[in-house]
Amino acid sequence: MQKVYTKIESIVGNVITVRAKGVKNGELAIVTTATGESYANVIKLQNDLVSLQVFAGAAGISTDDKVRFLSHSMKVSYSDDLLGRIFTGSGVPRDKGPLLDENMIDIGGPSVNPAKRIIPRNMIRTGIPMIDVFNTLVESQKLPIFSVSGEPYNQLLARIAMQAEVDLIILGGMGLKYDDYLFFKDTLEKSGAMSRTIMFIHTASDPTVECMLVPDMALAVAEKFAIDGKKVLVLLTDMTNFADAMKEMAITMDQVPSNRGYPGDLYSSLASRYEKAVDFEGAGSLTILAVTTMPGDDVTHPVPDNTGYITEGQYYLKGGRIEPFGSLSRLKQQVNKDTRDDHRALMDGMIKLYASYKESLEKKSMGFQMTEWDDKLLKYGQLFERKMMDLSVNIPLEEALDLGWQILSDCFEPNETGLKSDLIIARWPKKDA
Predict the structure, then answer these.
(1) Lowest mean pLDDT among 68-72, 116-120, 192-196, 342-346
(2) 3-state secondary structure of 387
(3) What is the span of the domain harbouring residue 43?
(4) Would you call 217 helix, strand, or coil by DSSP?
(5) Is 80 exceeded by the pLDDT of residue 252?
(6) Within 10 Å of residue 57's Cβ, how many Cβ atoms?
(7) Contacts of 262 (CB under 8 A, 6+ apart)
(8) 39 domain residue, yes or no
(9) According to the model, what pLDDT value does residue 433 have?
(10) Which CATH number does the domain housing residue 15 bear?
């Protein structure tokens, strides 16, 4: 039986406190006021004193309003009816479609037993050369996109959502500007990708508590689809906003702050979400690609710093490009040995020459005398940045590899590339007579 409490002990910000027994942390409640009802979430227990974060804010709540506990945590509906739909962080339709309340599943459950996981072994093609060729995305991988504000990380996620060779995209937006939300919505609808997409969107004007629910909503649904045999890619933006929401909640709960004011359980809170990435034997997979903005471009900031310990590499987005230095997919070796025989060698060779180009660029900027080799490297670096690094480039992996060979042949003699002779004989572009 659901108990109803009619006395609210205190109201501080968006947190209300009541005295109740038999209540669990994370349990859902409904607060009934003179103007309507609002959901609230239990965030703190101290003996019989229960603190709840009100989703819609505490404005208009009085101390004699009713609080009814629902005896369960937050749930989300799961079915194919979710496809093409947009919801808030609390699972309420944002797209003016019908409310879905059948086949409800819990959110925020434990990650999959490691014994049930299999070694990642399949590539996810995106059509972006800096990913497919140089830092391949692998099924069941968890990778952050490290960026600073102002970089086109949402545009990059939208392209991946449109082009990634997966069955299902689940987009979780946290603290999005309304323009960014409309950008995702319009881009996916125009491209036809919306039919295989589910969106859980929290905008900057929505309640803070809903920001914290977005990853759990997205990942709970993704896990169910993966169990049912779907290849699911979860795109999250921005996990720093998620961590900032955690910080705000921790301050409300009078927790002792840790590094830069973030709660002491920041690492475990991030890990419990990222560790949802999994590949099921005989079923589907769940892959996570999550934007993490770095305040002041500081990789030692607590959010990217903790993220780096959890994830399997990172993509660095800088100057509108995925940087080859610093970006790393630790699982790429699992798949790029099986894509094409020249993939690994070409990848290594092109990055080595690009590093040499950077050195020549520095020599030029300092006024040193340039050699013929430096001139070749400068030409190569410019072609590499324009034809491979530019995020507008959209070609399949095989075409990208062929393009790599073409760039090398435009700039160097075969023996200058450092690549093996048998590969050069097989792959070096033939000059027109």
Answers:
(1) 116-120
(2) helix
(3) 4-73
(4) helix
(5) no
(6) 14
(7) 243, 246, 247, 250, 302, 303
(8) yes
(9) 45
(10) 2.40.10.170
Give the pLDDT confidence score for residue 235 in this predicted structure. Answer: 97
CATH number of the domain bearing residue 224 = 3.40.50.12240
SS3 category, 215 = helix
Q: Domain ends where: 19, 52, 73?
A: 73
104 and 76 Cβ atoms separated by less than 8 Å: yes
Same domain as 355, residue 230: no
Residue 433 lies in a domain: no
Same domain, 243 and 181: yes
Instruction: Indicate the residue type of 49.
Output: L
Rounded to the nearest 5 degrees, what angle is found at the Cα of 190, between the Cα atoms of 285 and 137?
30
For the segment 150-185, what is each residue's pLDDT rounded down to a tens digit?
899 999 999 999 999 999 999 999 999 999 999 999
Paired sense of beta strands 75-77 and 27-33, if any: unpaired
Residue 224, pLDDT > 90, answer yes
Structure-derived torsion over alpha carbons of residues 152, 157, 162, 167, reported in degrees to the nearest 10: 170
Please identify which residue in the block is written with the tokens 């994830």: 311
- Is 8 within 8 Å of 65 (Cβ atoms)? yes
Burial class (CB in 10 A: 0-12, 13-18, 19+), 364: middle
Using a cut of 0.85, tell me whether the model's pTM lies above it. yes
